[in-house]
Amino acid sequence: MQAKPEQPTIILATSNGVGMGHLARATAIGLALKNRANPIIISMASAVAEIPEATGIPAEYITGRDRGLMSRYKWDKYLRDRILALVEETGATILTFDGVVPYPGILAAKIAKPDLTLVWIRRGLWQKKPQRFVLGMQSKIMDYVIEPGDYARAYDRGPTFKRKEAKLVAPVSLFRTAVALDKKTAKLKLGLDLNRPAVLVQLGTGDADVNQKMHAALSGLIGWKDLQVVLTKEPKDKNGNSLAPAGLDLKVVRYFPLADLLNAFDAGICAAGYNGVHELLAAGLPTVFVSNIRGTDDQETRARWCADNGAALMADQSNLPDIERTVKKLQDPILRIALSNKCLDLPAPSGANEIAEFLLKISKSTIANRILKSVQYRSFSVLEILGKKPIDAVKHLIVFFLEKAGLSYRVLFPHKKTTPQITGAPIYSQTIKTEELRALIAAPRRFEHLYPESSEKYIYARRAIANTAYDLNKGIRT
Q: pTM of the prediction?
């Protein structure tokens, strides 16, 4: 489907991170662009299935490298070719990437198409993980690096903090006061009793320690009169055993974006990830944060800042009794009011609009147009926009090195395999239906998701890319 010529097409790519932070930020930026551009979200995260139907933003799911459907080396080329085909199909001029490590396939797409503007949306508060050692080289490939603001940035002492190439904007959040539903409407949307309090619980399950944290948090809610407990995931371990103590009224919901319904709740219990903090606190929701220590995100530091500044409570993630005791404090209505009032002092999470404005500015195709737009945009100046050097051989070498470094790192620190060996012809679909897309992504089949209303040329190109990636020598019939 060709974009409207009067509006720029901008591809917003995300990795498959530990949580929803990358995809939530891309969605927030897409919503800010929606009426002035043609945003498209592409992601390795299965939750991308929620986006097209809920937001009207076109999206493509891309099979992640860690599903093991092809070798890592082939996957990098597959990602590059998918991006280049989508750019050709839509006329996109800008590619943003939100993730900790820009994949070699992302960088290779820039090398192959130098006039494609590449922007890295790179949040701060990194833990000191091995990925920090290639920050400088990754940044040199980028045309721009943007750091979404963080309420806890004053506590950031991680490897991104002193880097100069990133341009800081306000925090990015899916919570928007103008569109958030009022308490009554939000409760009705979720099927909740209007006359009973409700608490939102957004903690993961899986490994034994994470399951124990969930059980401790839910135990802290026992005794809250008439409480309704809303979760986004069944509180069960991998064997199907319940992690919830007896006596709680539990309800599991799936709604995207849940940020629109946060006014339904009286309190929250959440991991201290970027989107959790910048949605719940932006909504003024009294919250206990229980940090997830996996990945590069320094959730402990973010939760500590929130607690030190009186905007939320922080439980010691390594101490199950402390988690239960801290959650129990939410039953105090005076404390909840104090936490909500403190949230009013936090800066507006307007970063998505700021990023959208900048992307629109750099989407102008000629120097003349850029000169006309020479007004300083926060820390982005016209000199930065005009002064970018052309791609050169050094960048090719950097991409080559990063690809080899990534392969070596994954040999030393392999991912757990989550899917069995899958063979056979891929399923092709252009669906935007959430339930259909979820099922296709989860199915034990190769799945190729296509941009809605794809042209015949694009479909042909995508089949050729899949044939190469999966070593299929003959044409595929659907």
A: 0.88
